[in-house]
Amino acid sequence: MRPKWTPKIVGFFCQWCSYLSADLAGINRLIYPSNIRIIRIPCTGRIDPQFVLRALMNGADGVLVSGCHIGDCHYSAGNKYARRRIQVFKDLLDFMGFEPERFIMTWISAAESNDLVKVLTSFTTIITELGPQTQFTLSDTRSA
Amino acid sequence: MKILADKIGELLKNKTVDAVWGYCEGTQPFMMTPTYVESAASAAKLTFNHFCYHNLANYLRDLPDQKTAVVLKRCDLAAVNILLSEGQLKRENLYLLAMDCSSLIDQDKLAQHVSLDQKENWMVKNGKIYIKDQSIELEKIVYNKCFSCSYQELDNYDELIPFPDGIKKAQPEDDWLTEYESKSATERNAEWAALFEGCIQCFACRQVCPMCYCRTCIADKSSPRFIPKTIGAKENMVWQITRIMHLVGRCTGCGECERACPMKIPLSRLTQKMRRVVKERYNFTPGLTDDAAMFWGSYDDDDPEDFIFHPEKK
Mind telling me how many Å the CA of A2 is from chain B's nearest CA? Predict the structure, then answer.
């Protein structure tokens, strides 16, 4: 019997800010929904639309990209490139009929673990209401 | 078109250029074919008219190290500008013959008035085409992309050849976008999924685009595999989304991808939307000069960020 659906969220966290904020949340024993699978990337500037598409093809119901605030990037401007790239990518996905609420980007610095918890709780609620993602999910028998 | 053929003959005879890419009559009626000419004697067959669809910028990469002239429409000249600013072409090896063109005739639209199965005599004059026993106004049969040409003011050519009889006034772009954007996400998804059910991943859209020049395309990489090899609506959408993302800020809207698609997928809608996004959000038009900064390679401190998610404050 198939278990009841719960959202699967994939998070791409930059290793200098957001990943550390998740670490801090863990140290402080903050409670947040466990639907997220965190993937560490060196910087949000590393995000390629392929990462997001791959996650969606493999059944992710939501994708979150999180990085340093503008001006605080460890590599000076990585997040500025990401800002442009992800805005345009969102516009394209929206045009193709992909719900824009499923793919979000935030700036969360290493000390802002409370904000991280707020974002994750909020996002998980939104995805739960939206239901399973079917536009790009390939069937179970095929791999992306 | 005598003035063009004479000009090209002269360039070849004087050895100003060693070879020329242009258009000549082909085997199909109502479609000119690209051709490469190296001798002044062959220059006579080169011509230009309202059926010169191919984007000759696609043939300019990997030319021998000599001077090549090329006949260019406005959108093609913009494509050459992009290739120059990306370092794919050497300006000193090119002689740019820009046609002062302002419209191409859309075969599909013309076919609604006249059967195009056989060669017919035709003439364009005073804003109309005279063919068989009919005269049809150009505005009814001109390619959609030509109405909103952003490249009428380009001036970095070597020579401008006058080409009369097109539509000169700029018109607003087709309003399908406003109507489309009022549809819900589910409706849009369903529409595209139905269209991409037909895609066969032939990659004609990629081959015909001057800006798709990667030696190993992402679609050809198998380890890791990025673009699924299975043919299905979802996989095909992933391919097209990838291609469009790689072309944002570089696509000049020549429409060749849509014309090349054997399954008649309206790819120019996607490219048109992305050109609008780039123009409206970032005030950028690709291909205006041959030394502009690349769109993906730049950022601005004022780039919009209203899409950043902020959870509601409790």
Answer: 24
